[in-house]
From TrEMBL:
Family per record: Belongs to the enoyl-CoA hydratase/isomerase family.
SUPFAM superfamilies per the UniProt record, alphabetical: ClpP/crotonase (SSF52096)
GO molecular function, one term: isomerase activity
PANTHER family documented for this protein: ENOYL-COA HYDRATASE
Protein name, per record: Enoyl-CoA hydratase
GO annotation terms (biological process): fatty acid beta-oxidation
One Pfam family from the record: ECH_1
Listed InterPro entries: ClpP/crotonase-like_dom_sf, Ech1-like, Enoyl-CoA_hydra/iso, Enoyl-CoA_hydra_C
Amino acid sequence: MGSERIITARDGAVAHVELARPDKLNAMDGDFFAQLGETFRALGSDSAVRAILLSGQGRHFTAGLDLGWAAGQFAPSKDPGRWSERQHRDIVALQAAVNAVEEARPPVVVAIHGGCIGGGVDLVCACDLRVASADAWFQVAEIDVAITADLGTLQRLPHLIPGGIARELALTGRKMAAEEAARWGFVNRIAGDRDAAIAAGLELAGMIAAKSPMAAVGTKASLNHSRGRPIADGMAHVAMWNAATLANGDMHAISTAKATGTPPGFADLD
C-alpha cells in the first residue's frame, strides 16, 4: 500500500489514531483514504474499543487533499463517459472512507492543531467531539481550487454550526479560527497547544470509555439517525433500540457498583 499514512496505539479501551504524514502536512492521497477506511472499520468492529481519539502529527492537522495526487487521479481520458463513470466510483470510495469515521461504533474525539483545510474539515465533521488548540484554524478551501466539497462538509457542517455561517465558509473559503469555531459550537474545547489538545481529547475519550458501552453506542446511533429527520422518526428509532438492548448487563453493573461504592466494570460489546 505504500508508506504508513495512519498509525494507531491503544491504551485500554481508548484507541489513538494519528495522521502520520507530517512531511507532507498530512495531505490526503489514495493511501491515506484507504488506510483511513480500514482503520476505522477495524476499530469499529473491535469489541474492546469504547472510544477513539484522532489527531495529527507535525505542524498542521492536515493540509487537506493532496492536489498532486488528485491531478493524476482525476485527469480526463479520451472517453468522457468511461472517465465520468470511474470518477463517480472514485469519489464514492473517498466518501466511504470518511463515512467510516462517523459509522465507527465507538464515539470519536478529534484533537485539531494548526491548519485543518479542505478534506480535513470533511474529516473532523464526521467525528463526534472536537477539541482545538488555540492556534487551530479551519478552511473549507475547495472553492479556491474549483471543487465543490464532496466528502461530507456540505452535508454535516450545517448541522454543527448555523447554516448561514456554514454557507459563508463554503462560498468564500475564508479561515475560521479556533475562537470563532468555539463560539459557533463547532469545537467543544480549546486547549493551549497541540499537546494540550491531545491531552484534553484523551481526557474526553477516557470519560466516554468509562461509561456503559451499550449506552454510548446507542447514544451515538440515535444522534446520527435523528439528524435531519423529524423528531418522531428519531424517537421511534431510540424506542426500538432500547426495546432491543435494555436487557443488558451494564445496568446491573452500575447498580452493583453504587451498592458497593466501587467503579462499575462493563463487559466488552461482543
